[in-house]
Amino acid sequence: MYLADEAWPDLQGELDGTVALVPLGSTEQHGPHLPEATDHLIAEAFARRAADRTGFLCTPTVNIGVSPHHRQFPGTMWVDAPAFRQYVESFTRNLAYHGVRKVVFVNAHGGNVEHLREVGRRLRDAEDAYAVEWMWNDSIPDLVDDAFEHNGPHGGPKETALIQYLHGNLVHDDRLEDAHEGGVESLADLDTVKHGARTFYDAVENSENGVFGDQTDATPEKGEALFEAALDELCQLAEWLDDQPFEALLPPERV
User: Fold this and answer.
1) How many angstroms separate the CA atoms of 19 and 241, rounded?
2) Cα(44)–Cα(171) distance, integer angstroms
3) Taking the complete model, does pTM exceed 0.85, yes or no?
4) How far apart are CA 118 and CA 225, in angstroms?
5) What share of the chain is helix, strand, coil (3-state, %, to 5)?
6) Hey, is 183 helix, strand or coil?
7) Which partner from 146, 203, 206, 246 sits 20 to 30 angstroms from 6, CA to CA?
8) Strand, helix or coil for residue 207
9) How far is Cα 40 from Cα 106, in angstroms, rounded to an integer?
């Protein structure tokens, strides 16, 4: 069920106690070959299809996330981290008002991770809701690593393959070679950690075109295989969460 498609009378009795799948991504550069919508398109696809498969609730997508580290590239949009946390916490509390107290943040942007986990902690500590952050590639790390020789953390073959599968018309296949040659194939080639400290803040400090890995290794078939495997993990997570008594998800008593 997609919340925004429904009229309110049809939602009566449908929300209380269900699990909400909230897709979150970003609108930011993903190299010369991928759309700036990459992350939120991926998140929305996972959340929508998981909702279709399980019958749980899918909410509208949060399209803009915490992306200041990509700001040097034209078109990147971002919100400051405190504003992002406050916004996500606020609408999650509003879901709880309607009886939706179990939430999966279906996330596809690394810059959102720590902030979504912090929001989840605040909501749980207040005993208002139980929300967990889920990121597709973290659910199938071995499959991702096995699929590509040079994976790359951003704009690499894993994201390229997913968008080739989900929205192939948005991929500039004629720029895959340029993306590879103008980016950074392996993080091991970088010299940006000094004496145990990470000395960079922005993506452009590491990669002139903003991407990493070998984009030429991506195919729609690999994207479909990875998507289906991660989708299965997401559905299992949502079903597990649905099975848990809400009280069992709250903080333990003081020892």
Assistant:
1) 7
2) 17
3) yes
4) 31
5) 50, 15, 35
6) coil
7) 246
8) coil
9) 10
